[in-house]
Design a protein that fits this description.
Order of helices and strands of chain B: EEEEHHHHHEEHHHHHHEEEHHHH
Shape of chain A: globular
Structural class of chain A: alpha/beta
Number of domains of chain A: 1
Number of domains of chain B: 2
Strand content of chain A: 15-25%
Strand order of the largest sheet of chain A: 1-2-5-4-3
Number of helices of chain B: 15
Helix content of chain B: 40-55%
Shape of chain B: globular
Helix content of chain A: 25-40%
Largest interface: A-B, 37 and 45 residues
Oligomer: heterodimer
Order of helices and strands of chain A: HHHHEHEHEEEEHE
CATH topology of chain A: Beta Polymerase, domain 2
CATH superfamily of the largest domain in chain B: Cytochrome-c3 Hydrogenase, chain B
Number of helices of chain A: 7
Distance between the termini of chain B: 28 Å
Largest sheet of chain A: 5 strands, mixed
Largest sheet of chain B: 4 strands, antiparallel
Strand order of the largest sheet of chain B: 1-2-3-4
CATH architecture of chain A: 2-Layer Sandwich
Number of strands of chain B: 9
Chain lengths: 192, 373
């Protein structure tokens, strides 16, 4: 089963997160804690994630969690810090997933921008969502366009609409907006 | 050739603008080409000439009021877009759809798919220099437009689906008309194959031209006939069944070659498969309501985000909703299939002759308002 396999692979990314957030002392938080986090189900994704992270400094997000496919339309919901996205995408690429789309959501109340990546698999219906919260005043996240070339346009579009900067992108110029556009229309405080 | 020339004296290459007003781009798409003689060194599509920001409109109007927007993106298979959007909102808000309504949706969507493929067939052969097939294809397509007009009230930018059902029931005239149309098109398809598919000029223009490998299709997220022409057996109707599609017996045509001919064959075969689905749906059409007994008045999906994909004529059309529990979307992302399909053009056309690249572009079946949204 693709779902179980990919969930396990993505869960490994979380094992290092506490270590990154704290320091050497975090070495003592091994698989057990990570597994606990992975199991801790959070009821509703976006709002909760928004307000939760608003509270304090980088709280390690929970591991990949399975969602009710019939209700949401996707199987696996994976919230990651921006620096982990490339590693996660590499895992998905190894398993032959394809990129459906990349987009953003402006959580203006929490002063955060969310980047959402949708992946699916050609052989088996397995929708994986990666999401990452960025600081709204300095939204930056590494590009994945060198792994999935199709991401090039999706990232340019997300930059057009939200002003999210995909660092390392070869050509982050306006794509759908006029070439001299200096506005980001899908930000909630955008006024035409 | 429409466009400006710019000679680079040192490199012996020149820049050529294809479009934005060019018949082969089917709308306002511009492709910036760096040419070495007749060969393409680099091709970069430039988008956005008819960008209308449907996604922002989705955040500014209520769920119901966005319905007419759906018909104005992919205007050739508007009903697929209708279907994707209503299905996404129905999933989010937990709205039940009566079975008869789902059947009517499938019948009309598949007719719309046939009309879209017919127009593509005519326009594609026109791109390659054959004028007559377009007139034949339009003749057939006209019959579908008449049929759909009698049910939906419009000929192109349909807004036929409602949350929980459809707007209008079909009558006997529609059923007889559809059966007659299918009978007629079944007789015409062998003629198309004899005159066009087996035409040596068409074969020479398409065979081995514009190869797209399986891996390239995956890296760019290509779906629909483009992916299926590259040997990827992926059809959302089969892969991620929605509506009442599991109740029908149909094949998913897949061709391994990955060239323009393969994509041509996929679409031609799909016309037959869509006719099969329509026939079965008419045979099995259940009696009953076309809208829920309790009318859907206020749509307020609970907080959260939702995804729904449908197989549009050009590939996987996806709707990603983020709801904050009000009567308006917090975020409405529309994933259009041709956007991803076109993004591989730069890589796929490298080193090709310009006329061959136009054959490749035609085989991608572009609809610009859908790419630009």
């Amino acid at each position: 089963m693709m779902l179980a396999k990919i969930k396990e692979a993505l869960a490994e990314l979380y094992e290092e997160i506490p270590a990154a957030a704290e320091t050497a002392a975090a070495e003592a938080v091994p698989e057990e804690a990570a597994a606990e986090q992975a199991d801790a189900a959070i009821p509703e994704a976006p709002e909760e994630a928004g307000t939760e992270e608003e509270a304090e400094e980088p709280v390690a997000p929970p591991g990949p969690k399975e969602t009710d496919y019939v209700a949401t339309g996707y199987h696996l919901d994976t919230a990651l810090p921006p620096e982990k996205i490339v590693a996660a995408v590499e895992i998905l690429n190894r398993e032959d997933f394809f990129l459906e789309t990349i987009t953003g959501v402006d959580w203006i109340d929490a002063q955060q921008l969310e980047v959402v990546y949708d992946f699916n698999h050609f052989d088996e219906n397995c929708r994986v969502v990666l999401r990452s919260m960025l600081d709204r005043s300095k939204p930056e996240i590494p590009t994945i366009s060198d792994i999935y070339q199709g991401a090039n346009w999706h990232e340019r579009e997300t930059h057009d609409f939200f002003g999210i900067v995909f660092t390392g992108h070869p050509n982050l110029e306006p794509l759908l907006l006029p070439e001299d556009a200096d506005f980001h229309p899908l930000l909630k405080d955008f006024k035409a | 050739m429409n466009g400006s020339l710019q000679q680079d004296l040192n490199q012996e290459t020149f820049t050529l603008n294809l479009g934005p007003q060019h018949p082969a781009t089917h709308g306002v798409l511009r492709v910036k080409l760096v040419m070495d003689g007749e060969y393409i060194v680099e091709a970069e599509p430039v988008l956005g000439y008819i960008h209308r920001m449907h996604e922002k409109m989705g955040e500014n109007r209520t769920w119901v009021k966005f319905l007419p927007n759906c018909g104005r993106m992919d205007y050739l298979s508007a009903l697929s877009y209708n279907h994707g959007y209503v299905a996404a909102v129905e999933r989010a808000a937990g709205i039940e759809v009566p079975e008869r309504a789902e059947y009517l949706r499938v019948i009309t969507v598949e007719l719309n798919r046939i009309s879209s493929h017919l127009l593509w067939f005519g326009a594609f052969v026109l791109d390659l220099g054959g004028f007559t097939p377009l007139l034949y294809a339009f003749d057939d397509r006209e019959q579908i437009l008449d049929l759909l007009e009698s049910v939906t009230g419009s000929r192109l930018t349909y807004c036929y689906f409602r949350f929980g059902g459809v707007y209008n029931d079909i009558d006997d005239a529609f059923i007889t008309g559809t059966r007659e149309f299918i009978k007629r098109l079944r007789k015409r398809m062998p003629m198309y194959h004899a005159l066009v598919t087996k035409n040596i000029i068409l074969i020479k223009r398409l065979k081995d031209i514009g190869p797209i490998s399986k891996d390239m299709a995956r890296r760019y997220g290509a779906t629909g006939p483009v992916a299926r022409g590259s040997g990827i057996n992926f059809d959302v109707r089969r892969h991620e069944p929605y509506s009442v599609y599991p109740e029908f017996d149909f094949d998913v045509p897949v061709y391994e070659e990955g060239d323009s001919m393969a994509r041509y064959m996929v679409r031609m075969d799909e016309i037959e498969q869509s006719m099969r689905i329509v026939e079965q749906a008419l045979d099995k059409l259940p009696e009953g309501d076309i809208q829920p007994k309790k009318a859907v008045k206020l749509v307020k999906p609970p907080k959260g985000d939702y995804y729904q994909a449908v197989e549009a004529a050009r590939g996987s059309f996806g709707v990603r909703l983020v709801s904050d529990g009000t009567n308006t979307a917090y975020r409405l992302k529309l994933r259009s299939p041709t956007y991803s399909n076109l993004s591989l053009f730069g890589e796929a056309s490298r080193g090709m002759l310009l006329p061959d690249a136009l054959a490749l572009m035609g085989s991608l079946d572009l609809v610009i308002p859908e790419i630009d949204r």
